TrEMBL record:
Keyword presence, Hydrolase: yes
Domain Glycosyl hydrolases family 2 sugar binding as annotated: residue spans: 43-219
Keyword Transferase recorded: no
Signal sequence range: 1-21
Family annotation (InterPro entries): Beta-gal/glucu_dom_sf, Galactose-bd-like_sf, GH, GH2_Domain-Containing, Glyco_hydro_2, Glyco_hydro_2_cat, Glyco_hydro_2_N, Ig-like_fold
Annotated Glycoside hydrolase family 2 immunoglobulin-like beta-sandwich domain residues: 221-313
The protein's name in its UniProt record: Beta-glucuronidase
Similarity comment: family membership: Belongs to the glycosyl hydrolase 2 family.
An example Gene Ontology biological process: carbohydrate metabolic process
Keywords carried by this UniProt record: Glycosidase, Hydrolase, Signal
Domain Glycoside hydrolase family 2 catalytic as annotated: residue spans: 318-611
Organism field: Hymenobacter crusticola
Phylogenetic lineage: Bacteria, Pseudomonadati, Bacteroidota, Cytophagia, Cytophagales
Recorded GO MF terms: hydrolase activity, hydrolyzing O-glycosyl compounds
Amino acid sequence: MKNQLLRRALLAVLLVLGSFANQPLRAQSILIQNMPARSVLSLDGNWNYIIDPYENGFYDYRREPFDQSKSGKGGYYDNQKPSSKDEPELIEYDFDHSATLQVPGDWNSQDPKLLYYEGTIWYKKSFNLTPKAGKRYFLYFGAINYESHIYLNGKKLGMHKGGFTPIQYDITDRLSPNGDNFVVVKADNTRRQDEVPTINTDWWNYGGITRNAFIAETPETYITDYKVQLAKSDLNTLTGYVQLGGANKAGQTVTLDIAEAKVRQQLKTDADGKASFSFPAKKLTYWSPQNPKLYAVSLSSGSDAVQDRIGFRTIQTRGADVMLNGKSTFLRGISIHDENPLIPGRARGEGDLRMLLTWAKELGCNFVRLAHYPHNETMLKLADELGLMVWAEVPVYWTISWQNAATYQNAETQLSDLISMGKNRAGIVVWSVGNETPLSEPRLKFMSSLAKKARELDDTRLISAALELHREGSNVIVDDPLGEYLDLTSINEYAGWYWGGKPSEITKYTFNIKYNKPVFISEFGGDALAGYHGTAETRWSEEYQEALYQNQLKMLSTIGNLRGMTPWILTDFRATRRQHPVYQNGFNRKGLISSSGQKKKAFYVLQEYYRQQAKKYDGK
Ligand code: GCB
């Protein structure tokens, strides 16, 4: 009897193990640094797709997921084909005869019937790759919005949440030896309260594989991660680490070469494959917006080598000042979404991104706020190259589920991935942990934990979040307790648009800010339809927006600690909330540049103000 019970228990355990054996959910471990610089097989281009609002390709008719079943089969990821003509099986999908979508690219802008679609779409791409002995292979997606389930040759690699951070899987032992492979992605952009972002945002919920896809090849032992930066607030010390992965990562030699700076260091990895370093930096030319100097940095170990272009600078605050390379600076910024309104949908390539940053330069910026989520790795590299400091942010936006532990974990993972991706970029000077989050105890715990996490992961940059204000008469008060944890007191402030009357009335407001830190206005603005003219009191007109900017700048000049701003926003952008049929038409019109590329009057107001600030702080 006892034996029988034991046997049954054993059988139950084996059954459970068996069902999981089919689909080990490979959590992505560490993000490999600078993946696009590797030898890659691009998976960009056409992918076949199936729209699946009922998720028939994922669940059986009892709503049990196929990929959790004993066989692990039955889902669209099998990419099944009829096996014999005599006994045709019932297969109710066929990727190869389905239409295609371009990758990278959101689905909304590629097929009119997908414009407002929120739900699941399956993507499939076949590719030829015969794995070579002694090599490792990693499948990479720059971003998939929002939840993705990824399968290679019918087997699950894993699930990823978060629409703006890279996804990587080691697929070395999953590639077919004969070279015929297929990858299937279930992308689901359903909005949910407990996710990050939550259900409510002011941007278009673009779905799909929105950034590049490729497979990178590395040697068996490879450079996983590295950080090469100046030490915290120290212009004379280069510090960082190199991390190897693979079987022979311990006790290896790593060479760090920055030829132009006459740096050549031989490092030894420890038992975990990590080699840390710290040494004096001699005669470096520091990165700055005036001179965005980047050094060619080369890391090599065994047969692996990675090249990067890295700038060196320090950023810190002292009282009211923001100090770049030890010198006080004013952050002449503008906010930007990952969208170039001249093309439909998300920005897709370097050209779209370069155009946005070139406009920011023309405006006189030395700073950009890449709102409200992690932007493309290419964007971060372009900012380095063009001499723009960057505020990088996670989509902790408005009213998140503050008390849900999984929501916090999700936000923290997105923050960690953003910091991992951006840590070698000189341009990034601020990590923002969120935007306009409403005061409460649970929110303070959530947000301050995120701020502490950001500092723990990277203490060389400033930490902030876009805060809200409240008013008593003409007194604008900023006393959000989260401010204690932040380096910049950043405020979103919409005098003259959402409150405070007409633009001409807002100069009466004065600011009462609790913290003696640099004050940064992370947003202000108002909508204007380009080409629509009226007086300074005609809402939606260019003149109204112009007056709003003029009076905002007057009002803000009374803040003694003011050290920068990123008005909202560089260009008009698509937003489902913006429904006015005459003035908005599905666009948030707070852009200084319209959806057809036309500069509005307010553009020139800010440009002139930035000219004066540049003169005051940089002497030109
Ligand atoms: C805000 C939000 C931003 C919106 C903007 C607006 O405060 O941070 O995402 O788009 O206001 O236009 O209302």
